[in-house]
Amino acid sequence: MKIKNKLIKLDWIAKAQFGVDLRKLITAFFRIPIYIKDLLVFKRKFNGELKLVPSLHDRYASNGDYEHEYFWQDLHVAQVIYNKNPEVHLDIGSRIDGFISNLATCMKVTVLDIREQTVKIPNVFFEQADLMDSSSISGYVNKFASISCLHTIEHFGLGRYGDPIIVDGFDIGFTNISSMLCSDGILYLSTPISNRSYVEFNSNRVTDYKKIIKEADKLNLTLEDFRTITEKGVSDSHTEDPETLMSKVDDYILGFFIFKRG
């Protein structure tokens, strides 16, 4: 499993940071013969102008990119919030082209992000803000009954998105986000977790799930739901026994928490 995780990480670095998709590069060579075979069959029967634009991988792919934790996260959390139907929902840094677009089809969403939003999106109200800077969210304290922060807080303080380098950025961000919840407000939080904490600089943090639950308790947040999410889907709820779920985790997994403010 550790070797597999290292290969997955290597593939991500090559693809996301250097623009080289190692898996596609390798498999392309094995798929060229079928492309040539199909081309020759087509050319025998076609007399018009022909341009070669190889699409070597599509015949082997499924009908969508749903073998990814982001897909299952965005779908699951959007459905949970839709069923709750809050009057106002605040999101912090989640994917615009996934989770936010899902929510914006049925409700208005206020979005805070340290990055710019370069286009205006229907039902999405954007404000640029640094969630590690309490002064930038002073107008939002105790204001929201529904807040989401998905696959975002692990980046705080690592400089990846132009944010300042702050070693305890996760803790500061968690405190500031919690402060925006009103009494009985709900926080939907996802972040990489493990049975220990470490930093993959400057990509993200992986946080001990026990630390998150402990810090939440200090912030007067009660754990309402706890699940893990992988490319295969969302786990059953293990709110009462999170250690049972985490005992199967070797290194990294995406954790999903629902907290309620007292």
Structure in words:
The chain is of the alpha/beta class and 262 residues long. It has two domains: 2-60, no CATH class; 69-261, Rossmann fold (3-Layer(aba) Sandwich). Helices cover 35% and strands 24% of the residues. It has seven helices and ten strands. The protein has helices at 2-18, 22-45, 69-84, 96-104, 169-179, 209-218, 242-246, and strands spanning 89-92, 109-113, 124-128, 144-150, 181-194, 198-200, 204-208, 221-230, 233-234, 253-261. Strands 1, 2, 3, 4, 5, 6, 7, 8, 9 and 10 form a ten-stranded mixed sheet that branches. Helix 4 (96-104) links the parallel strand 1 (89-92) and strand 2 (109-113). The chain is globular. 31% of the residues are buried. The mean pLDDT is 94.
Features:
alpha/beta, 10 strands, Rossmann fold, 262 residues
